[in-house]
Amino acid sequence: MIVVCSACQARFQYDDSRFGQARTKRFKCPKCAHVFEVANPTAPAAPAPQPMPAPIPAPIPAPIPAPPTRPLVMTAPLPEQDPAMEATLASARSTARRDRDSLLAAAGIQPGGLPAGLKFSLAFLTGPQASTVQVLERPLIVIGREEGDVITQDPETSRRHALLEIRADGSVWITDQDSTNGTQVNGERITGPVQLVSQQEFTCGNSTFMLLVRNTSEYPLH
Q: What mean pLDDT, rounded, does the chain reach?
């Protein structure tokens, strides 16, 4: 075969049997020393590229069935309240309340739970709330720094410091609630329930109180 240099177009003879099984062979031009490749004329043609298979389409999702509809249930309208029946019920409720209040009064207890004819108050003598008075309106009164019925705002007072109990006979008892600095009555730290009398003082932390009990039957409020 005739080999032609791709640079200087020089031509020279070459035995194509020397390609062997190679598809190409590199030559160096003896004239210009250019290196180039020549295809083997006896090599079989390269197989044509196979076409890519067509993509398989994604399956179409099945439609989501609609939720079953519940049958419409017709409800009958509520009957109107009989005025006579309503008046009877109201009268029964009033009678029950009067009976309950009568029982409490017979026991010496007001509907709110306090003994009838007595008014109970706490006067702040020392502490952040000094020179103020708070009326006691419940039979159980919690004294605490930030929680309870009587708030001291005293950092030396525990969150729930002491408990005042106003009993049906009009007596008042105080119990310490495991406070840090304790509760003192007559200068002594108490360890159990202690009865207080009117104008008696007790101390929780740095706050000192005086219990005030007023007989509203003998000294009516104006």
A: 81
**Residue 180 near residue 158, CB atoms below 8 Å:** yes
Q: How far apart, in whole angstroms, are the C-alpha atoms of residue 86 and residue 108?
A: 33
Q: pLDDT for 113-145, tens place per residue?
A: 789 899 999 999 999 999 999 999 999 999 999
**For position 23, what pLDDT does the model report?**
79
d(CA 212, CA 197): 8
Token pair 């207890």 in the structure block, residue: 109
pTM: 0.49
**Both structure tokens of 161:** 């410091």
pLDDT band at 185 (very low <50, low <70, confident <90, very high): very high
Residue type, 135: V
